[in-house]
Amino acid sequence: MQIFVLLLTLAAMTVISFYLGRQRALTVAGGNIPALNSLPSYYGYYMALWCGIPVLFIVISWLLFESAIVAGIVVASLPDAFAALPDQQLNLVLNEIVNLARDNVTAGQASSDIATAAQLYNQIKAVSSGLLFVLSITLGAGGAAFAWNRIRVQQRARNKVERTVLIFLMVCSTIAIFTTLGIVLSVLFEAMRFFQMVPVADFLLGLEWSPQTAIRSDQVGSSGAFGAVPLFAGTMLISAIAMTVAVPVGLMTTIYLSEYASPAVRSRSKPLLEILAGIPTVVYGFFAALTVAPLIRGWGESLGLSVSSESALAAGIVMGIMIIPFVSSLSDDAINAVPQSLRDGAYALGATQSETIKKVIIPAALPGIAGGILLAVSRAIGETMIVVMAAGLAANLTANPLESVTTVTVQIVTLLVGDQEFDSPKTLAAFALGLVLFAVTLTLNVIALYIVRKYREQYE
User: Fold this and answer.
1) Do 307 and 409 fall within a single domain?
2) In this structure, how many other beta carbons lie within 10 angstroms of the beta carbon of residue 378?
């Protein structure tokens, strides 16, 4: 709550600084706006930036290091008996102190030393919050006063503001790049640990997936099987079924809405179609498990077929329905990018509307459509919830869509559920699967971008 009040106060100071800076610029120019080097609003932005940026930097730094500093002071105040504890037990003691200080549930009755430390923790946090508030207000006011005194008629306020915005954009892009790099490296390093325990060939070419390793070596099943081929096969099977549903329906829908439907029908149908993209995947999972899967099983039994209660066909059909807006939207952008002059030229040569669509529009928009389909395949490969609820967890190596299968993403979730130690092949296998999934989706995205850029037509 105190941080919220501080940020609210900082926002108010920034707004006030903007108006003061703008008024200061008008004052020094004697009301003659053309005499100023920049527009008056840029002087307001200049003063607001000087007020807000230093304070924001201090607040972020304070919040990043406050917990560690307060924890160090509290731990140093504990009796010597606590200092001799191992690091893990000392962390548990610190967690108990923090929970007691925040009036959370603690394990049993807290000792007097823990209670005293909790009181000290609250006192230090209160002092820290007060210092942060005073320092922020002082620094914000000082920055605003500094900028207010520097405002002159010939000051290049616009250049300084735009330079600051440019630096901010560069910082944001750098954070995004390093975040992506950190994700890749974290998965890669853990996957390398897994491949030190399990050979790469056994993982990529093995036909049996059973990552249930025992805690003790004398237990049954102490060595698991980590052949990921059944997972790859299940992923490709469900993705193929999904794309079989999504691509024809999505493409035909796009052709109708773009070429045949009236503007009134398109304006009403397009938002209704996009609603499918906003439905949570867990809702699709419920729909697949409670509606589609029983229908498929009943249909199969009526034909004398053996259909599993959790089948790849049910998961694939519902996943295809979910991806229809994705295919439709990307294809719609590609078709609408084809200039009207090509349509008019085909009509002038005597082509019908259907012939124009088949011989002119679709070939011209094909690179964009193909790229969109590949991106939709990446979306299908990465889906988890529908497969968990409709296809099951059995790692069966089969091409029968009526049987239960599982996918890479489902196994990643299964392996990392609960309290896990990241020292066993069972847990580290999730990172190896994640690395393979990342490589496959990245390859598909690169191919899609390559197709779009290489075969894209440039129209004037």
Assistant:
1) yes
2) 19
Last residue within a domain, chosen from 155, 182, 211: 155
Q: What angle do CA 128, 129, 132 make, to 5 degrees?
A: 85
Same domain, 147 and 242: no
Q: Which two tokens stand for residue 265?
A: 């029908």
Helix axes 408-415, 229-255, angle to 10 degrees: 130
- Note the helical H segments in 279-352: 281-287, 293-302, 312-336, 340-348
Region for 103 from its dihedrals, namely left if φ exceeds 0, alpha if ψ lies in -120 to 50, beta otherwise:
left
- 147 and 25 share a domain? yes
Predicted confidence (pLDDT) per residue in 31-70, tens digit: 788 888 888 888 899 999 998 888 888 888 888 888 888 8
Cα–Cα dist 393/230, whole Å: 11
Residues 249 and 393 in one domain: yes
pLDDT, tens digit, for every residue of 155-195?
888 888 899 899 989 998 999 899 988 888 888 888 888 88
- Distance, in Å, from the CA atom of 398 to the CA atom of 19, rounded to the nearest integer, reads 69
In 3-state terms, what secondary structure has residue 225?
strand
How many Cα atoms sit within 13 Å of 64 on the Cβ side? 6
State the pTM of this model: 0.71
Cα separation, 417 vs 393, whole angstroms: 14
| Residue 191 Cα distances to 1, 30, 208, 250, angstroms | 41, 68, 19, 37
Please report whether residue 160 resides in a domain: no
For 417, which DSSP code? S
Segment holding 425, helix H or strand E = helix 425-455
Q: What CATH number is given to the structural domain containing 274?
A: 1.10.3720.10
Which of these three, 104, 135, 155, is where a domain ends? 155
Whether 445 is covered by a domain: the verdict is: yes
What 8-state DSSP symbol labels residue 154?
T
Is 187 inside any structural domain?
no
Structural domain count of the chain? 2
Number of Cβ within a 10 Å radius of residue 241: 22
CA dist., res. 327 & res. 244, Å (int): 12
Instruction: Output the six-digit token pair for 106.
Output: 């603690």
For 289, the domain range is 225-455
What does the alpha-carbon distance between residue 26 and residue 280 come to, in Å, rounded to a whole number?
Answer: 53
Is the distance from CB of 26 to CB of 33 less than 8 angstroms? yes
Element (H, E) at 209: strand 209-210
Ramachandran category for residue 208: left, alpha or beta (phi over 0 → left; psi -120 to 50 → alpha): beta
141 and 231 in a common domain: no
Judge whether 371 lies within some domain. yes
